[in-house]
């Protein structure tokens, strides 16, 4: 919620096949990006949950760094309605960029999720319950069915067409479904912050390989305060993880008064065992499972 000397603001950076997607951009985001060593110029997409400063104040500096590092390709930004106005206002201090910005705005009036493809990332956005319009995100990597050469041979499909069909593309009278098996399990990362634990969240994040969720307060004594301020406790996040049958829960977005969140981890693990307390530059590699 507030940057501390030992703790920057919450943000998520995903990398797939060299291309990157960022969720939220508070102060200090680009410093952590530099320390990770993943580079800047391959950042294609930026998702914004809402327009409180701790989630967007780092944008002007980040965009300027992208430009200074030679980025020329368009960058797509996704967020609630009003995103373009907010970003263009922040851009006053970074007016000359070497690339254009594309804005995709989602309404938060609907109860249910919207979905788009951003490169290889399938992004779903869910309206949340906060003091400002706010979105949660699930980012998944869909995976095609396995190519079956026996089907291709039985159908007398020339071998030179196999690669095209393997990529999920049609060619002449041949279609991928003729030679591909059912879709295989992909990967899914969900990011929920600045919200009450509303009933649409479990279905939205269901089956996530990684569920990143706010835990503003570690102590259940702050439950009422959390409800007043539209935030969750560790226990709230853990109960969502149980209901959604996720693989792992990372807690983040701690109150500035919560200087030792690990003190509340054991009681949280009693609800959902595979819970981890987030820290700066924590990384994880997710791989497809056959």
Order of helices and strands: EEHEHHEHEEEEHHEHEHHEHE
Percentage of β-strand residues: 15-25%
User: Average pLDDT across residues?
Assistant: 94
The helix count comes to 10
Task: Indicate the low-confidence ranges by residue numbers.
Answer: none
Number of spatially distinct domains:
1
Radius of gyration: 21 Å
CATH homology-level superfamily: Ribonuclease Z/Hydroxyacylglutathione hydrolase-like
The CATH class label is: Alpha Beta
Rough outline: globular
Largest β sheet strand count, sense and barrel closure: 7 strands, mixed
What would you call the structural class?
A: alpha/beta
Terminal Cα span: 39 Å
Report a brief summary of the structure.
This protein has 290 residues and is of the alpha/beta class.
Describe it.
- With 290 residues, this protein is α/β, with parallel strands linked by helices.
- It has one domain (12-144, 183-277): Metallo-beta-lactamase, Chain A (4-Layer Sandwich).
- The protein has helices at residues 29-36, 53-56, 59-68, 83-90, 149-154, 162-166, 201-205, 223-228, 234-244, 265-269; strands at residues 12-16, 19-23, 43-47, 75-80, 101-106, 114-118, 121-127, 135-143, 184-192, 210-214, 249-252, 275-277.
- Strands 6-7-8-9-10-11-12 form a seven-stranded mixed β-sheet. The chain has a five-stranded mixed β-sheet with strand order 1-2-3-4-5, with no helix packed on it.
């Amino acid at each position: 919620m507030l940057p501390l000397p030992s703790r920057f603001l919450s943000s998520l950076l995903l990398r797939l096949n060299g291309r990157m997607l960022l969720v939220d951009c508070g102060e200090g985001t680009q410093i952590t990006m530099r320390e990770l060593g993943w580079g800047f110029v391959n950042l294609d997409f930026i998702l914004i949950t809402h327009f409180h400063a701790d989630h967007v104040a780092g944008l002007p500096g980040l965009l300027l760094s992208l430009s200074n590092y030679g980025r020329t390709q368009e960058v797509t930004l996704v967020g609630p309605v009003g995103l373009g106005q907010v970003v263009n206002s922040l851009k006053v201090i970074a007016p000359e960029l070497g690339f254009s910005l594309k804005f995709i705005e989602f309404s938060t009036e609907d109860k249910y999720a919207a979905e788009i493809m951003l490169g290889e990332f399938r992004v779903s956005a869910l309206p949340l319950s906060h003091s400002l319009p706010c979105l949660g995100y699930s980012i998944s990597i869909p995976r095609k069915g396995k190519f079956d050469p026996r089907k291709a041979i039985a159908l007398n499909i020339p071998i030179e067409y196999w690669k095209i069909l393997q990529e999920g593309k049609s060619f002449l009278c041949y279609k991928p479904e003729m030679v591909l098996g059912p879709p295989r399990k992909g990967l899914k990362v969900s990011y929920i912050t600045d919200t009450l634990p509303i009933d649409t969240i479990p279905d939205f994040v269901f089956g996530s390989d990684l569920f990143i969720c706010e835990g503003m307060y570690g102590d259940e004594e702050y439950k009422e305060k959390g409800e007043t301020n539209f935030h969750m406790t560790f226990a709230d996040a853990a109960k969502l993880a149980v209901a959604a049958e996720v693989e792992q829960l990372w807690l983040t977005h701690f109150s500035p008064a919560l200087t030792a969140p690990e003190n509340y981890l054991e009681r949280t693990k009693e609800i959902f065992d595979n819970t981890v307390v987030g820290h700066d530059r924590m990384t994880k590699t997710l791989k497809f499972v056959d």
